[in-house]
Specification:
- By secondary structure, this protein is α/β, with parallel strands linked by helices.
- Helix content is about 40%, strand content about 20%.
- Strand 1 and strand 2 form a beta hairpin.
- The longest helix is centred in the middle third of the chain and has 19 residues.
Length: about 220
């Protein structure tokens, strides 16, 4: 087995059991490494790790089919402001952002407990939609309110064939490992520079904590 294949197998095995995987996308795209979790496995301690060790925005990516069922739009299409009229990105054609939400059983929505609850309930929602449960915008609104503190991302309709973001990379891992189509992604930042954590530093972090590290191109090659 090649070193690359072994690294990928380890990443998928960890993800299958609910462990996080560090995923570096592409140097010519965002050039960022995200901590990626199956959303259904995230607890308050995982939220604490993401805000302390990663430092980026904690988001839940759901598949296009789940977003459609719940009536979740692209956020830029809903903002009636000139700032959203020309959403030009240097790294992609379109942002994946949908609504930021809190579960209705949360208080402020920002605590580790509150965000973990919102995240796991989003995973439950995605699992129900995937299982064919009759679930629509009314059911979503009964469970979640917006605006909130967990940003929902909407995956591209054809996954990695459409878009090569962390949203699609994470959802591809979920599909490959039998997880619901809902994953948490959080960018890793460098405390000293304030920029994206370098791949070298991300690999060192992964080794220190016993987490797998995988390149986006490896996931595309195996799962795309």
């Amino acid at each position: 087995m090649s070193r690359q294949a072994g690294r990928l197998d380890r990443a998928l095995a960890a993800f299958r059991t609910g462990e996080p995987v560090l995923v570096h996308d592409f140097d010519d795209r965002e050039g960022e490494t995200d901590l990626v979790y199956p959303a259904g496995s995230v607890g308050p301690e995982d939220v604490a790790r993401m805000r302390n060790d990663a430092g980026g925005l904690i988001c839940v990516a759901v598949s296009d089919a789940v977003a459609d069922a719940a009536g979740l739009p692209f956020l830029e299409d809903q903002i009636d402001h000139l700032a959203a009229a020309s959403h030009d990105l240097a790294y992609d054609d379109r942002s994946s952002f949908s609504l930021p939400v809190n579960h209705r059983d949360t208080f402020t929505g920002i605590t580790d407990d509150d965000r973990a609850l919102t995240i796991t309930e989003l995973a439950s929602m995605a699992s129900a939609v995937e299982a064919g449960v009759d679930y629509g915008p009314e059911e979503f609104a009964a469970e979640f309110r917006a605006p909130g503190h967990v940003h929902v991302l909407r995956g591209a309709p054809d996954g990695l064939s459409d878009r090569l973001g962390h949203t699609e990379l994470g959802l591809a891992m979920a599909a490959e490992t039998g997880q619901p189509p809902a994953v948490v992604v959080c960018e890793m930042l460098d405390d000293e520079t304030g920029r994206a954590l370098s791949p070298t530093a991300a690999r060192e972090y992964a080794e220190r904590h016993g987490f797998p590290y995988v390149e986006g191109e490896e996931l595309v090659e195996a799962l795309g």
